[in-house]
Amino acid sequence: MKNPATFYRWLSILLLISGYTLPVQAQNLTLRADKLRNEENVAIDGWVVNLEQPSNIVEEKLTNYAKTTFSAKPDKRTKNVWVFPKVQLKEITPLRGDLRAVLTPGTDNTTLGFTFSPGYDIHLSKEQYPKELAKLETWVKQYVKYHYTEVYTDQIAQKEKELKNRQSALEKEEKKLTKLRESLFDSEAKAESGDAKATAKNEKNKTEIAGIESNVDKLRGEIGEIEAAIAELNDSIKKVKE
C-alpha cells in the first residue's frame, strides 16, 4: 500500500457514507444497587459500578474529583474504603455527610461503590431514605460520566503526543528523501556517461531512497491509525455525555 494514511481517510469516508461507524471505546455506565461494607464492617445501601480501568487510574480520578469538587482529600479508613467527611451533595440532601467510596480492584478493572451517611449512624437506605438513595444513584451516574470523560481525555492527550512525534519524524524523513532524490538527479547524467564514482553513488542513493520510502509509508500508516484512534476516543466522550 503506497499511502496507508490516505487509505484510512478514504475508509472513514466510505464508512460514513454507508452509515457505519467505527466502534467507540467500551464503557460501562450501568449501576447496580448493593450493600457495601464500611470501615466498621457495617453493610450500607449504595450504588456500584464496574469501571474498566485498573485501580490506580480509578483512585487518581476519584482523588482529582474530590479535590476539585469538595476541596477534600480522601481519608483512607481501610485499604478499600475511602471517606470524604462532611461533604455537601446538594443534589441529594442539604445536609452534610460522609461520602464513602469502596474500591475493589480486579485484574484490569475496578468495582467502585458509593454510600452517603448524613450522620454517624445514619445512612441512606431504601427503607428510611428511598428518595435520597435514588438521588445518590443519579449522582453516581454523573460521577461515572466524569470518570470516563477524564480517562478518554487523557488517552487523547497521549495519542496527540504520539501523533506529533510521528508527524515530526515523517517531516524529517521526507526532507531526507527530497535531498537524496535531488542528489540522484544531479549525478544521473554522470552515471549514464560511464562515471563509475557517480554510478556507485547513485546505487547507494537508490538503496537509501527505497529504505526511506518504506519508512515514510510506515509512518503515514501509523499517523492514519492514531488519527482514527483519536476520532474514536472523541466519539466515546460524546457517547458518555449523551
TrEMBL record:
Where is the signal peptide, in residue numbers? 1-26
Coiled-coil positions: 153-236
**Keywords tagged on the record:** Coiled coil, Signal
UniProt name for this protein: DUF4468 domain-containing protein
Organism of derivation:
Rhodocytophaga aerolata
